[in-house]
Specification:
Helix content is about 45%, strand content about 25%. Helix 5 packs antiparallel against helix 6.
Length: about 260
């Protein structure tokens, strides 16, 4: 029996790329906004919903890779699909909004992995490719997956709090033993402990204590941040230093929560 698994690998991007990434995120936001404006302009002129191929032919980017442009437009049309679906139920539903910034996305055809680095090309005119090294543990993990036949399906660069991070989506197909459908597992859902399971032989309790501790720590840091910032002049060097320091701590705890919930 074959099943498909998806693995997510994240990596902090070197700071030397930050000025370029800001320009690329601005360009990605322009692609989204231009696609949005062109879509509704054609819709008003013809009274028909424009096809994705029409928008893709007319909206291009001199800086971003063609796969990046297509991926952003795919997400834009996904948002439009949700908008038209919601409008049937709610006439006051609002369409997608223009974006100043947007995440950078590469499809699998544009992604290369070589010598421990992920290569993400930009447009042919620019002749630039981002070369992002992976840490040893993540590099070994990815190489093990690739050696077993897995594929990198998508790469996305996001801005979180104070840094840029690369998110790789790896698709793996594995063989597993078919489940025994004669066995039954009883689940008891709770408020404090998420659930308790019993299969007639073994009891498993998932208490989520570590996850709760991280969530409590995050809330404490937010309270501490508000308390310290209230005592300082907004915009001053001390205000900026305290804000930057606590923002980093909050984002780190948030990432730990996301890892546990994944």
């Amino acid at each position: 029996m074959q099943i498909t698994r998806f693995h997510i690998i994240t990596q902090k991007i070197p700071t030397k790329y930050y000025p370029l990434l800001k320009k690329l995120r601005l360009e990605a936001g322009k692609i989204w906004s231009d696609s949005l404006n062109l879509f509704f302009e054609l819709f008003k002129q013809t009274g028909k919903i424009p096809k994705k191929s029409q928008i893709q032919k007319l909206v291009k980017s001199p800086l971003s890779h063609s796969q990046t442009t297509q991926a952003i437009q795919d997400r834009f049309f996904g948002a439009l699909k949700s908008y038209f679906k919601n409008r049937k139920l709610n006439p006051n539903a609002k369409p997608p909004k223009p974006r100043k910034f947007y995440n950078l996305i590469w499809k699998n055809q544009a992604i290369r992995y070589k010598n421990g680095k992920v290569l993400l090309p930009l447009s042919r005119k620019s002749g630039i490719a981002l070369s992002i090294p992976l840490r040893k543990r993540k590099r070994e993990y990815l190489e093990d997956l690739l050696s077993s036949g897995a594929q990198i399906r998508q790469a996305e660069i996001v801005f979180k709090g104070f840094e840029y991070r690369l998110i790789l989506l790896v698709k793996e197909t594995v063989e597993i033993n078919p489940p025994d459908r004669n066995k039954v597992v009883a689940l008891d859902l709770g408020e404090i402990h998420p659930f308790v399971s019993f299969d007639g032989e073994e009891v498993l309790i998932w208490n989520g204590r570590l996850l709760r501790s991280y969530k409590q720590l995050r809330l404490k840091l937010i309270v501490l941040k508000q308390k310290l910032l209230a005592k300082k002049q907004k915009g001053s060097r001390r205000w900026e230093r305290v804000k930057r320091s606590l923002d980093r701590q909050i984002v780190k705890v948030k990432r730990k929560i996301e890892d546990l919930e994944h």
